[in-house]
Amino acid sequence: MKILHAIPSLDPATGGPPIVAASLAAAQTALGCPARIISYDFPEARQRIESVRESIPGMLQVRLDYLPPLTPMEHLRAAAARKLSRAAVSEVDVVHLHGVWDPMVRAVAMTAAQAGKPYILTPHGTLKPWAFAQRRWKKRLAMWLGWRGMLDGARFLHFLTEEEQRLAAILCLKPPGRVMPNGIFLQPRPARGAFRDSQAQLGKHPYVMFLGRLHYGKGLDYLAKAFVLVLRQRPDARLVVAGPDAGERAAFESLIRQLGIADRVLLTGPLYGPQKLQALVDCDCFCLVSRSEGFGLVIIEAMSCGAPVVISENCPLPEVATTHAGIITVLDADKIAQAILTILNDPEKSRQMGEAGSALVEARFTWPRIAQKMLEAYGQTIRR
Hints:
The protein has 2 domains: 3-185 and 366-383, Glycogen Phosphorylase B (Rossmann fold, 3-Layer(aba) Sandwich); 194-364, Rossmann fold (3-Layer(aba) Sandwich). By secondary structure, the chain is α/β, with parallel strands linked by helices. It has helices at 17-30, 46-55, 74-90, 103-114, 129-133, 136-152, 162-168, 194-198, 220-233, 249-259, 273-282, 297-304, 319-322, 333-344, 347-364, 367-383, and strands at 3-6, 35-40, 63-67, 94-98, 119-122, 156-159, 177-179, 207-211, 238-242, 265-269, 285-288, 309-312, 326-329. The model has no long low-confidence stretch (mean pLDDT 88). The protein contains 16 helices and 13 strands.
C-alpha cells in the first residue's frame, strides 16, 4: 500500500500536526507501506523542518515534495496544490489529509476524488467548538463554499479522542469517525542535567515547564497567575516557558511584569529535538492548561521523559488521572497552583506519577502501534 500525506506546513513552529504527519508517515514506511508527504514550501522554516526530520526515526526515508511558496491569493494556492498533487495522487492507493481550512487541503481532496482515490481527513482538533468559533463567520462561509463537501467526501474522519469525535458530531458530517491517538517514538532518555547546565538562571531550583506555541488558547495567563500563588509557598520555584511566539508572547511578558514574577520566569524561545527532551527530563513538573487542545502531543512527550503533569480538563487525556500520571484541573489559577504544589511538595508522589506516565505512553501511545492500526483502517477503506 502506498500513502500520500498532505499537510499545509511541516514547520514545527506551527504546532503539533506537522510532527504527527511526519511521524505517522515514517512509521508507516517502516512497516513496509511507503509514505510520501506534500506540503507548502516555507524557505525560512527549512532548517527547523530538517531538524525535526532528523529527529524522527525513519523520516529521512519518506519522500517530501514541496508546493511552491505561498501566494496571498487563495485560488492560486489551490491551483498550485492541484497541479502538484495530480501526479502524486496517481501513484498512491490512499490519501491522508491533515487539517481542514487551508485551500490546499480541499484542493488535494478534489484531486483525489477526481482520480477515484479514497481520502481520509484528520481535523487535528480544528472542528472542536472552541477552535471552530475562532473566525467563525469565515469558517461558516467556507463550509457553504465547498468545505462541507470536502469533509463529507472523506471515507472516514480520523479523530484523536472520543471527546473530539463527540464534539464534532454537532456538524452532522456524513463520514464515519475512527478514533486513534497520536504517539511518539520511544527513545532513550537524555541524561539529566544538560538543560539546567545550559541555563544559569535555573541553578538547582525546581522548575515547572510549559512547552508549546505561545498562543492565547494555551492558557498562559492562567499559568502565570497560578505561579504567583505557587511562589508564596515555594519561592525557590521557577517557571520555564518554551515555544515559538504565536501572538501571545508580548502579552505574557507584560503580564508577568505586572505580577512581579518576571525574574522567576525563563522564556527560552522554541526548543526542538534533543533540546526539547533535555528540558522535559530535567523539569520537576510539566504544565499545560489550555483553553482547547486537539490532543496535546507534548503531554505524551513529557510523560515519556518521566515528568509528572498538570493539565486542564480541556486537554483530552483522561488517562492522566486514571493512571495517576498527573493531575487534571479546571481552568482556575488557585486550582492549578494547588496541583503544581502537590507535585513540588511531594517528591515521592512526583516520582510515582512520572513512572506511571512512562508506563502509560509505552502501553498506548507509540507510533508503530498506531501506524499499524491506521494501515488496517486504510485497508478496510480501500476494500470497501
